[in-house]
Write a structure and sequence with these properties.
alpha/beta
Length: about 230
């Protein structure tokens, strides 16, 4: 199996103490490694905001992951691109380290140029979210709404629930496509290629990868189905 170094990052000490975020990243990386034939030979966990041009200097665990990956001549894997950074300059600096980075969410075949594009989009998205949040808070304050209103938390909870339900509905739709291919003895990667060739949409409308295929039965546990690699 191909070696890979896992890098997990949370932004606050509170998240680190609670384990919130770290376990989800670890599970995502593990499922990706199992699906794509990687062996996680080392893991680094960072508690850092990641903001600023000197972010790498303030991330000793990332520096350690880079050193270990160089020695093993293997890539570093993260669950999502934002666990590295949403800053384009920072991502460019990492690419200059000449250590391959793999983003589990995007799949194994994303080259550095595409990572730059995703980082630029994420940076723009962060700026837009910040601006919209400021505008929404200002509008709410002008209406006399007390910030920290429980209704806001309820609205966020509803939105999160809707996202989960949408993912479950998508899993229910694509599972009938996956099961016959699995019964034919196809691997996760072969199933992913076949789904893409058939034009079956992923939850986000992109290309299928083995990790996406492996995620579907997890969301459909009530069906009692497990697709093996």
């Amino acid at each position: 199996m191909k070696p890979i170094v896992a890098y997990l990052r949370v932004s606050t000490g509170k998240q680190a103490k609670s384990g919130l975020g770290v376990e989800a990243q670890r599970e995502a990386v593990r499922r990706f490694a199992d699906a794509e034939g990687y062996s996680i030979v080392d893991e680094r966990v960072e508690v850092e905001t990641g903001k600023g041009a000197d972010a790498l200097d303030r991330r000793p665990e990332l520096a350690s992951a880079l050193e270990h990956a160089r020695k093993r001549k293997c890539p570093i894997v993260v669950a999502k691109l934002d666990r590295l950074s949403r800053d384009v300059a920072f991502i460019s600096g990492l690419m200059a380290q000449r250590v391959p980075f793999v983003v589990a969410e995007l799949g194994p075949a994303v080259d550095p140029f595409v990572l730059h594009i995703y980082a630029a989009l994420a940076e723009k998205e962060r700026a837009l979210i910040s601006e919209r949040t400021k505008q929404a808070l200002a509008a709410a304050k002008a209406r006399g709404v007390t910030l920290g209103n429980p209704r806001l938390a309820e609205a966020r909870a509803r939105a999160h629930k809707q996202l989960i339900e949408a993912a479950e509905r998508h899993a229910a739709l694509v599972l009938p496509h996956i099961l016959p291919l699995h019964e034919q003895g196809l691997s996760l990667r072969a199933i992913a290629r076949e789904l893409t060739a058939r034009g079956v949409a992923t939850a986000r409308g992109g290309q299928w990868y083995a990790v996406h295929v492996a995620d579907i039965p997890r969301r459909r546990e009530n069906a009692g189905v497990r697709v093996a690699g």
